[in-house]
Amino acid sequence: MKAKQTNALATLLLWLAALAIVGILAWFLIFILGRGLPVLGPQFFTGPNGVGGQFFNSFYILFLSLVFSLPVGVGAGIYLAEYAPKNRLTDVMRLSTESLATVPSIVLGLFGMIIFVNVFKLGFTILGGAATLALLNLPVLVRVTEESLRNVPASYREASLALGATMWQTLRKVILPTALPGLVTGTTLVAGRALGETAILIFTAGMSVSRHLFDLRLTAPGETLAVHLYAVQANPLPGTHAGRVANGTAALLVLVALAFNLLLALPSRWLQHRLSGKRG
Question: Where does the ABC transmembrane type-1 domain lie (predicted)?
């Protein structure tokens, strides 16, 4: 009886914790979207103080940072999980990666400003911001990739190799499809963190935006939605309706994060089925 009561109490506590988390999330969404959704409209993007340029820069810088960091981060994670020998060098590599993942973003922002803004003389540009964001993404991508691949059962590898497949075929046809949900989750977390990053981009991409709505120049200034939200709240200018702009920008950031998660999660499930040889 005592064991049953303990189990029932533990189950109740876990349910209460889960409901509390869902309740906090629901309150957060209702509060942010309730204040910001009425502000959103065509004028919010294209008006005199519209955020169309910042909206475009957010995705442009995110895309560039993932282009820079995904091949290196995923490749390094695959090497550490599948090919690297067990020795002191690989232990140092893992320790260094974990240490880099804990570095505050403002420190990386200062590093990016010194290297890209001052040494390379790029100024406050989209390229400098994306390159520094890539440095923020790399350690997390390496660790997520390595852990996702290590969670694939060893029997999968052994069965594939026993059937005559090469290590590359085993990796491509067996290991990566099985680890895909973990890889997508890690990429989504990295992308969400990059979308909401401010410190790095203030120091490297600047707090101004190009006059052209869709400016693809890598040397253009790169204020994003998160930086714009900080700017309008930190230095509200008279007559700019800073409060409404901040509420609308916050709501837009939440909607972007939700949409981004769905757009990555749904195709990844379909791709996992295709790579695993399933249909339907």
Answer: 55-264
